[in-house]
Specification:
heterodimer, A: 257 residues, alpha/beta, Rossmann fold, seven-stranded parallel β-sheet, 14 strands, 26% helix, globular, B: 327 residues, nine-stranded mixed β-sheet, five-stranded parallel β-sheet, 10 helices, 15 strands, 30% helix, 28% strand, elongated
Chain lengths: 257, 327
């Protein structure tokens, strides 16, 4: 089974988000980079499927040259091929252009399954997987938290919860599935995996030009951190001695009659 | 010109009572009504429409779609495409698993851009919309321009309050029985009851949160008891699910569930930024924590400085005594 996993380099966000002076990006001078938690699970799911059914996992990203770091991290986890669709540093590429660029990698009949995270944690566009599926002419399921592949029949059963109900979709391979954290617990990279990843070859292809990066998409004008609902909490007391005051607050809030 | 809004229904009462409009859709309709201004506001319902809810929110037209058995995202998108081709100037939905999915399909089949999880949308005329949408699950807001003959927008589930219209509308009903191409029904949901989890967390009025401070899988007993006494549910931070103490369905945060309760009672949660992305929609936050400088304390309305293992059991006893005395 040949699987393509699409990931995206995003800043590691810690205590607070700080923006650059032009308010068009996150200030990453002091932060590292990673892929989104949903995507870590997509890589893990792909590696497990390849371990079970044979075949291999290829990981692709659209981003600047330094996104090689994220591809190598995925190679250390068990992917065996990597494609970097290279864009100018700092260029934001919208979901339509991203899906188009990924399509060029995914098309051609090599892959049986394309996995993505449900959404990238930075832009949260919630659509690249579906747009890619339409370009490929494949069925898609999104937000998946349980995936079962029947290699013999070539069908996939994909489930998620929606308003307390379990929704299960049956899809025929080849298909696109976007997954969410919780579908598995990703492994840590092994030492041999890391060594292999260091030496692995990465295929580089040119990405969209700046003019086409978000021409058809929503165009960001600026970013802002929402007005901090920073409050000075009213301290009700220390330890169990605070319970009477706590009960009074619960009554005031109307959650206790 | 009309703004169409895909409406999701809640499950209805356990005794078989009629389904109402899901709270997230009332929020979406509220933003759709602002965008529609003096134009038409149309609700698209796959199933039996709850007319009183829709009229109260100013919906002028209801498209009641029948003949599609169950949830089929691409087929739903085709129906919206057909409806918007007549007089649509925007198609909106709640930023749920279904809302984002159906509008992404609609974007793909029409070639139009789609903006997910909007908090504001203003029509600047000539097919240009000024929007504010969530990034990083709401930790960051993006101001953006959307240029399209029809704007496709989902509404962030925790950024807009549901507000009924000043004057209820008179609703015109349109029955829609589309002929759907079989290929659009290939991906279709089969529904089975799930265990307790994500959904009740998303709609609970009270959530009792447990974090690293709970200490172990066995430490949740008092929190569960407290949640039951308050008519709420327990939610957890990411560390709790990655430690395997509780399943991922109970996780509150950017990669878990976004909650919008009246009260979030956060016990032993220091408050990572990704956790705030999931709980900032709470009307009130009470934090119980040993560390008075924990980030959660700067976002809470009320704080108790102390060990949750002492405070929560004492609170449970106090609430029980209060209930025994008749409130």
């Amino acid at each position: 089974m040949e699987i393509l996993v699409c990931v995206k380099r995003v800043p590691t966000v810690g205590g607070a988000i700080t923006l650059t002076a032009d308010r068009r990006a996150i200030d990453t001078k002091a932060s590292g980079f990673t892929i989104s938690p949903h995507e870590e699970c997509a890589v893990e799911e792909a590696v497990r499927l390849a371990e079970r059914f044979g075949g291999s996992v290829t990981v692709a990203t659209l981003g600047p040259a330094v996104a090689e770091e994220q591809l190598r991290a995925c190679l250390a986890l068990g992917a065996s091929g990597a494609v970097l669709i290279e864009t100018e540093p700092g260029l934001e590429v919208g979901p339509i252009a991203t899906a188009t660029a990924l399509h060029a990698v995914a098309a051609g009949g090599r892959f049986d399954l394309v996995l993505l995270g449900n959404e990238a944690s930075d832009t949260g566009d919630y659509q690249v997987g579906i747009r890619l599926a339409h370009l490929l002419g494949w069925p898609a399921a999104t937000g998946i938290k349980a995936l079962a592949v029947d290699d013999g029949s070539g069908w996939v059963s994909a489930s998620r919860t929606y308003r307390g109900v379990l929704e299960t979709f049956a899809l025929e391979l080849p298909c696109v599935v976007t997954v969410k954290e919780g579908i598995n617990l990703p492994r840590y990279p092994s030492l041999p995996g890391r060594l292999r990843a260091k030496r692995a070859a990465i295929t580089r292809v040119p990405g969209p030009e700046p003019a086409g990066a978000s021409a058809a998409d929503v165009r960001m004008t600026s970013l802002r951190v929402p007005d901090a609902p920073r409050k000075q909490a009213t301290v009700l007391g220390q330890g169990a001695a605070a319970v009477p005051a706590l009960v009074d607050v619960l009554v005031q809030l109307g959650v206790v009659s | 010109m009309t703004v169409f809004c895909l409406v999701e229904l809640d499950g209805g009462a356990p005794d078989g009572g009629a389904a109402g409009v899901a709270d997230v859709s009332l929020r979406a309709i509220t933003l759709a009504r602002e965008l529609a201004a003096s134009g038409g506001l149309a609700a698209v319902v796959f199933g039996d429409p709850p007319f009183p809810d829709l009229a109260a929110y100013g919906v002028t037209d209801v498209y009641a779609v029948s003949g599609i058995d169950g949830y089929a995202p691409l087929a739903w998108a085709r129906v919206l495409q057909w409806l918007m081709s007549e007089s649509g100037h925007a198609v909106m939905a709640a930023g749920t698993e279904r809302g984002n999915e159906v509008l992404a399909h609609l974007g793909a089949i029409t070639g139009l851009p789609m903006a997910a999880n909007c908090a504001q949308a203003v029509d600047n005329g000539d097919g240009a919309y000024a929007i504010v949408r969530q990034r990083w699950a709401g930790l960051l807001l993006e101001e953006a321009v959307l240029e399209a003959p029809v704007a496709l927008l989902t509404v962030a589930t925790d950024a807009v309050s549901a507000v009924p219209a000043a004057v209820p509308a008179t609703v015109t009903v349109h029955d829609v029985a589309p002929s759907v191409d079989g290929s659009d029904l290939v991906v279709r949901a089969v529904e089975t009851p799930a265990g307790a989890g994500g959904a009740s967390l998303a709609t609970a009025r009270v959530v009792v949160g447990g974090g690293r401070g709970v200490g172990s899988a066995d430490g949740f007993g008092p929190l569960e008891e407290l949640a039951a006494l308050l008519g709420g549910v327990v939610g957890v931070s990411r560390v709790v699910t990655s430690e395997g103490w509780r399943p991922h369905t109970m996780q509150v945060g950017q990669t878990g569930t976004k909650i919008t309760p009246d009260l979030y009672l956060a016990c032993g949660i220091s408050g990572a930024i990704q956790h705030f992305a999931g709980c900032s929609g709470a009307k009130s936050i009470i934090a119980i924590n040993t560390d008075p400088n924990a980030p959660m304390m700067t976002r809470a309305d009320y704080a108790v400085i102390g060990d949750l293992h002492a405070v929560v059991p004492a609170l449970v006893i106090a609430l029980r005594e209060r209930a025994a005395q008749g409130g």
